[in-house]
Design goal:
The complex is a heterodimer of chains A (about 375) and B (about 170). Chain A has about 375 residues and is α/β, with parallel strands linked by helices. Chain A is about 40% helix and about 5% strand. Chain A has helices at about 5-10, 15-30, 35-45, 60-65, 75-85, 95-110, 140-150, 155-160, 195-210, 220-225, 235-240, 250-255, 275, 315-320, 330-350, 355-360, and strands at about 50-55, 85-90, 115-120, 130-135, 135, 150-155, 185-190. In chain A, helix 2 crosses helix 3 (about 35-45) and helix 5 (about 75-85) crosses helix 9 (about 195-210). Chain B has about 170 residues and is of the alpha+beta class. Chain B has one domain: [NiFe]-hydrogenase assembly chaperone, HybE (Yope Regulator, Chain: A, 2-Layer Sandwich). Chain B contains 5 helices and 6 strands. Chain B has helices at about 10-25, 115-130, 140-145, 150-155, 160-165, and strands at about 40-50, 50-55, 60-70, 80-85, 85-95, 100-110. Chain B has a 6-stranded antiparallel β-sheet, sandwiched between helices. Chain B is elongated. The termini of chain B are far apart. Classes of the chains: A alpha/beta (about 375), B alpha+beta (about 170). Chains A and B meet through helix 11, helix 14 and helix 15 of A and helix 1, strand 3, strand 5, strand 6 and helix 2 of B.
């Protein structure tokens, strides 16, 4: 008989009560409403567990660090046992030949039916020798496993865009996953690292519904990457009122004014930091007094100093959103464009229920 | 300033326009994200729930703004949820004299994608209409829309559920 997610969890000592609570929290985090908790629970109780192989290329392991520290202790336990990472060289017990054998075994047993999570990216120069796994270039392991997987999760900015190792001049030619694997569905979860709650919610969604959540044009899950830090920033009132920090530790800084002039990249960065925040919703960089460095955006290392003011105005516009054609009025067509822009803005501005999930009392299993 | 009820929508519009024209002159000079072709304009501020709801357009943002009738001493920057016909919106608490506390929800910032004042004004008016109409494109609705009726009918269903039309929705 096939093992379900629920079986795995029970075996890990997770109570049914905790399990159901996790289901409702996840439903809320995904913006699906409480009635979906039942669906998630049902899926987890009845669907055979989907194995996950978690490969590491050139990276710093901050994605793993973030993931295993998911705010809700329950979420962490459940997801770790649910995902039951068959292979993850950071946290698996196996090593050496034994570890590599797991990959072979998963490919054989679950051909075409496992999820491949990639943290980091493969370097292509010097025949890939800048990242060697089990004696072979990482790019070989990646392409081999990807050939047999069902879908790929690109964790973090490295896998999604290249991040620091792909920064100019990119001597190792570190290349993001989607430029190597072009024949599999890929979901990007950028950030350096991505927010833990975002990671667990994405994994849970994929494993329970067996498909990706709705993605934007860049392949990111819309539910977490459709708003900019600037849109929901708690310092936004000061931006609106033209109250800016002029230098660190000035009067404005003490009063919590807007950090735009200190180089904050919030206005061009799509992520959920200002709503979900970090460390169990405690804080996020701007709340700690430093501008956003835009770590979840493509090529953020090559966009100048973290403290340089955003003056590259086209970047404001071009990256801003889907309705990027200039919004004109004039003719009838223009009216339709204005109406469409208004509708999208209104939809985008809507509260994602991630916050509601956070407001739930936090308590362990 | 704890009694806001006698203020009409026209008075709110005037107050907000005055406020942000002042801010533009005093604090926003030469900032690169300003749209020079746009001038400050406020729309709406008709009574809605226990307050006034409108949209304010400036050269640097277009926000949905809610002025609660009852003045609560919320902390500037804290979050407030407002249930509108189109869904739940989270607003950030703001404070400016002489308006006092008001809540803002960002629609656009900056506003460089607008070709001119007319386009921005049209969008602002549409947006105000849009939040006051029910929206059926939430994640939940989309999920349910994807499930065909045939599939729903295959689910075993109690007589009560069937009579309640549960095969059409979850």
């Amino acid at each position: 008989m096939l093992e379900t997610f629920y079986d795995v969890m029970r075996r890990q000592g997770i109570s049914r009560r905790s399990f159901l609570k996790y289901c409702s929290l996840t439903a809320a985090a995904l913006g699906l409403g409480p009635e979906f908790a039942g669906k998630i629970a049902h899926a987890m109780e009845n669907k055979p567990r989907i194995p996950v192989l978690w490969l590491h290329g050139l990276e710093c392991t901050c994605c793993s660090e973030s993931f295993i520290r998911s705010a809700h202790p329950l979420a962490k336990d459940v997801v770790l046992s649910m995902v039951s990472l068959d292979y993850d060289d950071t946290i698996m017990a196996a090593a050496g030949q034994q570890a590599e054998a797991i990959i072979e075994e998963t490919i054989q047993k679950y051909d075409g039916n496992f999820i491949l999570a990639v943290e980091g990216n493969p370097p292509l120069n010097q025949e890939g020798m800048s990242c060697i796994i089990a004696g072979k270039p990482f790019v070989e392991q990646l392409t081999k496993v990807a050939k047999h997987c069902k879908a790929i999760i690109s964790w973090g900015s490295c896998a999604s865009y290249g991040c620091v190792q792909a920064a100019k001049p990119n001597p190792t030619k570190a290349t993001p996953v989607h430029k190597i694997i072009t024949d599999k569905p890929i979901i990007k979860v950028p950030g350096c690292p991505p927010i833990a709650e975002v990671m667990t919610a994405v994994v849970t969604y994929i494993l329970t519904f067996e498909r990706f959540p709705e993605l934007d044009r860049q392949g990111r899950p819309k539910m977490f990457y459709s708003q900019r830090i600037h849109d929901k920033c708690y310092r936004r009132p000061h931006f609106d009122a033209g109250q800016f920090v002029e230098s660190f530790d000035d009067e404005g800084a003490r009063k919590g004014y807007c950090l735009y002039k200190m180089g904050c990249k919030g206005p061009t960065t799509y992520n959920a930091c200002s709503t979900i925040r970090w460390n169990e919703g405690t804080s996020f960089p701007i709340q700690a007094g430093h501008g956003c460095i835009g770590c979840s955006e493509d090529g953020f290392w090559d966009k100048g100093s973290w403290y340089a003011r955003l003056t590259d105005i086209p970047a404001f516009g071009v990256e801003a959103n889907a309705d990027k054609i200039g919004i004109a009025a004039a003719a009838t067509v223009g009216t339709a464009i204005a109406a469409h822009a208004a509708m999208s803005a209104v939809k985008r501005a809507k509260s994602t229920q991630t916050t509601a999930a956070h407001d739930e009392p936090k308590q362990g299993a | 300033m704890n009694d806001r009820v006698p203020l009409t929508s026209a008075m709110w519009v005037e107050r907000f326009e005055h406020l942000f024209k002042n801010i533009q002159q005093m604090r926003m000079q030469d900032l690169p994200f300003l749209h020079t072709g746009i001038t400050v304009k406020a729309f709406g501020f008709e009574p809605h729930q226990q307050g006034f709801l409108g949209v304010v357009l400036t050269p640097w943002f277009m926000n949905l703004i809610f002025v609660p009738e009852v003045l609560t001493q919320e902390q500037v920057g804290s979050r407030q949820f407002l249930q509108l016909p189109a869904g739940t919106y989270d607003f950030i608490v703001n404070y400016e004299d002489p308006i006092g506390f008001y809540w803002t929800c960002s629609l656009f910032s900056p506003v460089l994608e607008f070709e001119d004042q007319q386009a921005a004004e049209q969008t602002a008016q549409y947006a105000l209409l849009a939040v006051l109409q029910p929206d059926h494109s939430s994640a939940k609705d989309q999920y349910q829309a994807e499930k065909p009726l045939a599939e729903r009918l295959q689910q075993p269903m109690s007589r009560r559920a069937w009579l309640q039309g549960k095969f059409l929705r979850d």
